[in-house]
Amino acid sequence: MTEDHPAPVLLYDGVCGICNRSVQTILRHDRRGTLRFAALDSDYARAVIERHPELEAVDSVVFVENPGRPDERISIRSAAVLQVLRYLGGPFRLLLAARVLPAGLRDRLYDRFAAVRYRLVRPYDTCPVPAADVRTRFLDA
Q: What InterPro entries has UniProt attached to this entry (predicted)?
């Protein structure tokens, strides 16, 4: 990305097994190699939450565009997932068809899945350390 448009950041639940697998999938398919990541309990995420107090009680994936800039934008829950799909491009863009569903319905489906994620895949005790070749893409790693 450029200085005018810094790389987006994805905030995620660092101990969630599904979230970590999703991040690994994103890393494998990120052709640009610019998306960065931070756990929701990291110092970086806390600074984002401080700038966006409405995120205080959010336990969801958060997509941050133009991080740290006056025009910083955040997307949460299903909107964040759609932003990731848009960012990845290629065949992932086909999944953007989910935009035809009303946001409220998408978010209810997201919330239902999020409510059972720890039962589907056991959570980690601590946030896993990223592989050395991608560690620079993780903020506060």
A: DCC1-like, DCC_oxidoreductase
For residue 131, the enclosing domain spans: 9-135
Q: CB of 58 within 8 A of CB of 45?
A: no
- Residue 3 in any domain: the answer is no
Residue 78 in any domain: the answer is: yes
Residue 2 is assigned to a structural domain of this protein? no
Place of tokens 């997932």: 81
Neighbours of 116 (CB within 10 A): 10
Contact residues for 62 (Cβ-Cβ < 8 A; gap 6+): 10, 11, 12, 40, 45, 48, 55, 74, 75, 76, 80
6 neighbors 69 (Cβ within 8 angstroms): yes
Tell whether pTM > 0.90.
Answer: no
Q: Enter the DSSP assignment of 138.
A: B
pLDDT digits (tens, 9 = 90+) for 77-113: 999 999 999 999 999 999 999 999 999 999 999 899 8
Tokens coding 75: 């997307």
Is 4 domain-assigned?
Answer: no
74, 50 in Cβ contact below 8 A?
no
